TrEMBL record:
Pfam families: Sigma70_r2, Sigma70_r4_2. Residues 133-172 form the RNA polymerase sigma factor 70 region 4 type domain. This is RNA polymerase subunit sigma-24. One of its GO terms (biological process) is DNA-templated transcription initiation. The keyword S-adenosyl-L-methionine does not apply. SUPFAM superfamilies: Sigma2 domain of RNA polymerase sigma factors, Sigma3 and sigma4 domains of RNA polymerase sigma factors. Residues 24-93 form the RNA polymerase sigma-70 region domain. Belongs to the sigma-70 factor family. ECF subfamily. One of its GO terms (molecular function) is DNA binding. NCBIfam families: sigma70-ECF. It comes from Chishuiella changwenlii. The keyword Cell division does not apply. Keywords: Sigma factor, Transcription, Transcription regulation.
């Protein structure tokens, strides 16, 4: 594995070269996809987890949260592993109504701002405000991208369910989600918005 080349591609992507991430995804997608599929044994679930893995990768890289230079694949595999665990955990629980997406252990949290139920009132107020801000930012997206992102993040539908609800193919739904995340990140960066509570 050429870790040095990976680090250069990551740097290029962080500096605005979107195609650099495509190269990294193409380089490792079969290994990551196969790993996920070997655990869940369902194509639709595998595609959802695979997509969510790279959504988190995109947000972490663009948010400056990646600090494992030279170890891109192990880092992405760990994200995929954690999301797979989250999938199994969520399937063992009764469904609950939540305002936003996030796992109980906060390991997978696409916008890294949701926490557990015993946090202090002040933190809850701040996070509620962030949630409102995020929902407003989502309204700035083109309609087709906004719809897919809302269905995935706020309603927690699978990409198969999104495709069925919106009348498009799964690949189209995945593509719209990807562009929604890219455009949302640009809106956040352009407005110097921070969506994190420490």
């Amino acid at each position: 594995m050429n870790y040095e080349k990976d680090s250069l591609l990551i740097r290029d992507y962080i500096n605005g070269n979107e195609s650099a991430l495509e190269i990294l995804i193409d380089k490792y997608k079969s290994r990551i996809y196969s790993f996920i599929f070997s655990k869940v044994m369902e194509k639709d679930v595998t595609e959802d987890i695979f997509q969510d893995t790279f959504i988190k990768v995109i947000l972490t890289l663009k948010g400056g949260g990646y600090n494992e230079e030279g170890k891109f694949l192990p880092w992405v595999m760990r994200i995929a592993h954690n999301l797979t665990i989250d999938y199994f955990r969520s399937n063992k629980k009764m469904p609950t109504v939540r305002e936003s997406s996030g796992s109980s252990d906060d390991e997978y949290n696409i916008f890294d701002f949701l926490g557990n139920s015993d946090e202090c009132s002040e933190t809850k107020i701040i996070k509620n405000q962030i949630d409102q801000d995020l929902r407003y930012l989502v309204t700035q997206l083109p309609d087709d991208q906004r719809e897919v992102l809302e269905l995935r993040i706020f309603k927690e539908l699978s990409f198969k369910e999104i495709a069925e609800e919106t009348g498009v193919s799964i690949n189209t739904a995945l593509g719209r989600m990807r562009y929604a995340i890219i455009n949302l990140r640009k809106v956040i960066e352009n407005n110097n918005i921070i969506l994190t509570v420490d």
